[in-house]
């Protein structure tokens, strides 16, 4: 059995206000091309199909088209589960009809115990669930954490294990020891939402969703596929793609296939003059989502508008030396009353521009402050 | 070809804040029972499956269960369209899989021109649409109204007519000359949303949705099924049900089958004392949705709470003689300045209680007003 493992599509997600649907369709087309090239027997999607429990109409249109193409047109069997971002009930619509064409979309805990058998493999499709669901399903008041729930879940799954088949778990949670990036929603704090890797050892492969980096977990038999796209700056250096998994009689192997983003998430650094010079911006892909680190200290009037004219997808501007200045500012506030007028102006000028007054400027200020002072007295 | 015609389910609709899901499931079960008893070949649902474009999770759960039962379990072919209350895109999910089991759910105008053929009949499933959709679809800037759009739509449908078959149109709009009740949303004003009956004469039967009363339109070849439940007080006296339609070679016949509401919408009238007496309330079905007409004129402290203790589903309380009093009030306001103090109190008392002051009460007021007046002077 050879399958493609992907997850965390988050259809409808926006990146700092930018709609990603075009990128999502492009990544989907690449996934489909890989599935065809690799001649997989099925496509596994491990949760978070949508980004929100109530997706927009545009997101639904895109998703509907994707599943039609994948399952009805290209005839791939699909094994999918709902993630924490999906509304299980909303996603459930159509499910009982989907199975007629081998599109298995599990959204309820009770569905996880009826494995889907394909080739030499039993797939257990376990949707994202809260401990309360397991408490009710197992009628066990003791279950308070996902770890406790998973002990019962896996025990029950193993009752269905056929010894001559490979066993694959498709699930969507945080495996203890994994590394998070910025774009995953925190579910709970205090480790209540984590599952120890040791609990998963009975499976030949665990196709995970939830974390967006493929390297979030290094294990012999478990992998996050990661999201098909970079959803935050912290994922800037991640390689995005899918796993091609082979469950052979002797062992299970997996190989990563990279996706090429339609528009990448990148960071550029430099002074405002440099970044807005044609020599510079002609040398990079301006269509990317860009986080800009500015080295300037001076005030730049109309900065964002100027940058956006050149770079249409700015996802953030950072002043590299801004923080230092802000610290200084806090310090000065205490001293303000003890400073001479010209010193105050000097400090204000350097906070705003990052530069000091020239001698000429200082002299001009002294003269004019003096004149104002006299005029006030003369009243 | 024998089919059941229903429409305007409005799953998730509330009646004055009361959830109707239980009533909706009950009505659905009756519809299914009729379909079985009458041995129909298909069930037609002419739009407004949901009450809102974004239905609640509870409404989706109920609807999902209904369509599974109707189509997958009871194996009825289903011919359905989206109405103006449905989000066509949201409802579309699963559609391409539904057809595998003869569940045809059209949500887009372009789908209407591929008739579904069953037995001796061609069904044209025309979802609710706005003139703009027809303008784009026909690439015709002249189309501004539904009537203009329908001329083109029907012309195009007739190209598909097979002469030896019966032709049924399933649609969701306001046919000119129909009578509205209170629970239909007004779409537009000025008649832009109406279709003349004459346009529909090519069809053997037009299964309409949109208006909630089965008698809204009296025509030889067209019927509203009406909603399965009463959705407003104005529908109090309507009979709710479904049509059983036979498209025979010679002629098309239809017969109405009534539904019995789990809880009815009723109006009761009487004095507060009577309505809260056990003799009275034991004689009626207190579980119904009740609009109460009170004949009292007096103030009744804590009235709603007292009524709701006896009648759990009060959808409105009307003071039958309230309006008269309010008119009087407006008249008095002009005279207030010219009235003696005791007259003012008398008027206020009668406005609030509906009764006049007794002689003893008048005397008491005069004495005390006098005392207050003297105390004021003595200050």
From TrEMBL, chains A, B:
PANTHER family: COMPONENT OF ATP-DEPENDENT DSDNA EXONUCLEASE (PTHR30337), NUCLEASE SBCCD SUBUNIT D (PTHR30337:SF0). One of its GO terms (molecular function) is endonuclease activity. It comes from Enterococcus moraviensis ATCC BAA-383. InterPro entries: Calcineurin-like_PHP (IPR004843), DNA_Repair-Maintenance_Comp (IPR050535), Metallo-depent_PP-like (IPR029052), Mre11_N (IPR041796), SbcD (IPR004593), SbcD_C (IPR026843). Residues 1-212 form the Calcineurin-like phosphoesterase domain. SbcCD cleaves DNA hairpin structures. These structures can inhibit DNA replication and are intermediates in certain DNA recombination reactions. The complex acts as a 3'->5' double strand exonuclease that can open hairpins. It also has a 5' single-strand endonuclease activity. One of its GO terms (biological process) is DNA recombination. Residues 262-352 form the Nuclease SbcCD subunit D C-terminal domain. Belongs to the SbcD family. Heterodimer of SbcC and SbcD. This is Nuclease SbcCD subunit D. Keywords: DNA recombination, DNA replication, Endonuclease, Exonuclease, Hydrolase, Nuclease. It comes from the Bacteria. Pfam families: Metallophos, SbcD_C.
